[in-house]
Design goal:
Elements (H helix, E strand, L loop, with lengths): L9 H9 L4 H9 L5 H6 L6 H13 L3 E5 L6 E5 L1 H20 L9 H10 L11 E7 L6 E7 L2 E5 L9 E5 L1 H8 L5 H6 L4 E3 L2 H6 L20
Parallel strand pairs: 3-6
Antiparallel strand pairs: 1-2, 3-4, 4-5, 6-7
């Protein structure tokens, strides 16, 4: 089987690269500041390492990304080329279309992806001067927890207890978490209804939603309202 459509049309040629499964998400992750292999894979948790390696080689060959040696001597760092930066606009347009027209299914509520994205959109300048650790307990995930470690140098999501004292504990479910992050459920409504509970110092609990973290597409209004 040939890889391409064997057409001169720019849409066909562009689709040969962009329409490969996982490629738009790899471009998204690079745009969000993921540069190591493990960072890229964290944003695509259901993608195998071998497939990610294959996609990275293909994107490098096609001039979408470039690879540089890791300064610590192991592995590589990946960056978007000018061609890849232009592809980001296509990714954003696709996301806007998806936010306007597509509904979520039961399999789309993955708290690990939501919290990963939340951490990526935290405004580090708004954070307190001290480190803040937030534990998220998912009531619909058999008590599964995630930890968000926030300070002014980075926002990191951990699937295992990082070993720091916890400042806040958020108890909620995957649907509530996702609906808040994508701008469909206001924080005050989620808290007021009891769907989201924040335990910890009141001032810090009130500050949590002011640090950012909403989806890039949270302001996109759906074209059709669901009942």
């Amino acid at each position: 089987m040939t890889r391409g459509y064997e057409q001169y049309c720019p849409i066909a040629k562009g689709s040969e690269i962009f329409a490969e499964r996982w490629t738009p998400l790899i471009v998204r992750n690079l745009y969000l500041g993921c540069h190591t292999f493990s960072e890229l894979q964290q944003g695509c948790p259901r993608m195998s390492g071998s497939l990610l390696a294959h996609r990275l080689r293909s994107l490098e060959r096609d001039g979408v990304i470039e690879r540089a040696p890791h300064p610590k001597g192991r592995g590589s760092l990946y960056y978007l080329t000018p061609a890849g930066q232009e592809l980001v606009d296509v990714v954003k347009s696709l996301g806007t279309w998806g936010a306007r027209w597509l509904d979520l299914g039961s399999r789309d509520y993955d708290p690990s992806v939501v919290l990963w994205a939340w951490a990526k959109f935290i405004d580090l300048d708004r954070l307190p001067a001290h480190r803040v650790v937030v534990r998220f307990d998912l009531s619909d995930q058999a008590g599964k927890s995630f930890w968000m470690v926030l300070d002014r140098s980075a926002a990191e999501l951990c699937a295992l207890d990082p070993g720091f004292d916890e400042d806040l504990v958020v108890t909620t479910d995957s649907v509530t978490l996702t609906e808040y992050h994508r701008g469909r459920l206001p924080w005050a409504v989620a808290v007021g209804s009891g769907r989201l509970i924040v335990d910890g110092p009141p001032a810090l609990a009130r500050a949590l939603p002011t640090w950012g973290g909403l989806s890039y597409f949270a302001a996109v209004r759906p074209a059709r309202q669901t009942a």
